[in-house]
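Tutorial handout. Part one gives the primary structure; part two gives the three-dimensional structure as tokens.
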Amino acid sequence: MINTLKHKLNDAAVLWTGVTRDRYGKGDVFSSITDKKVYWAQKQDLFRNFEGEEVTSKAVVVSDFEFTAGDWLVLGTVAGLDSSQDPHTNNAFQVRGVQNIPSAGKPIQRVYKAFL
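Part two.
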């Protein structure tokens, strides 16, 4: 099952990671902006967010890399972003929940699901 999921990682997405506040505590600063291959489903799923509340996703993204709270994703590539490369002005979605899916066999392989 894991290998089948990994073969579906055909969508290009931009990932913003390592979010911190600027020195004035007002804006977001990102340590990394990278192109990734993902499976992007524009669908609504119920999930528990990081505060434990049950909420509905705007999209679900599956990948072979781990997501963290505060990451941002948008369909496309870094080259296609506007000059600011800011997720807020590029219609990106914030990761509001994550799921780690291990394989049943050995060696253990994982895929990761982000709820946006």
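Part three, for discussion. The chain has one helix and eleven strands. Residues 70 and 79 are 22 Å apart (CA to CA).
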